[in-house]
Amino acid sequence: MEFIVICCLVCNQLSTIFIIKYSKKQYICIMDIFKKIKRIRTEKKISQQDVADILGITQAAYAKIENPNNPESRKISIEYGKGIARALGVSFNELFEIESPANIEEMQVEIKRLKTEISSLKEQLSDKKMIIEFLSSSDILVEVAAALRRKENPERIVKRDFNDVEGLLKEVEGLPYDPGNKESLINYIRPRLKRI
């Protein structure tokens, strides 16, 4: 997984953007941003001088920003970054590949939805595990297997046990137990299964 980290540091009132890409557990500077700046500028037929004028610097100083081999191009002030974005007619966030608040809000909504779905699925899984444990602790499966071996229809056994379980559930219905603690219900039902 790769992602971009943009650190904005304020040192002696100088805000600087350091563009770093995290990849394969090591940090590398992205020169692609500066190539992107140059690509957008040339596609829109904007001269270096036009961008330099907006930034209030010389064309030679701006050329150093676009030069990936220049150590100074590894960092630019936020003010210059905003000026370059304005000169190129793109947003600062788009130019420097920063997630916008709208995208973050959308992701937060999606994360909340997924957490709710996971919670629901965990609850369903817990219910299914309880049913499996309930059935495993009763002799219904053994009786059904025996009926199948005798080539009998196990429906009679299932109906009988279903009616017995239904009666047990009616008996349990009024009892106080914590619905969040299904073990308490299982512990109540288990000894009564012996009589079914």
From TrEMBL:
Keywords assigned by UniProt, alphabetized: Coiled coil, DNA-binding
Statement: the UniProt record of this protein carries the keyword Kinase: no
Membrane-spanning ranges: none
HTH cro/C1-type domain boundaries: 37-95
PROSITE patterns xref list: HTH_CROC1 (PS50943)
The keyword tRNA processing belongs to this UniProt entry's keyword annotation: no
Coiled coil residues, start to end: 104-131
GO molecular function: DNA binding
PANTHER family: HTH-TYPE TRANSCRIPTIONAL REGULATOR XRE, TRACRIPTIONAL REGULATORY PROTEIN-RELATED-RELATED
Record-given protein name: DNA-binding transcriptional regulator, XRE-family HTH domain
Species annotation: Mariniphaga anaerophila
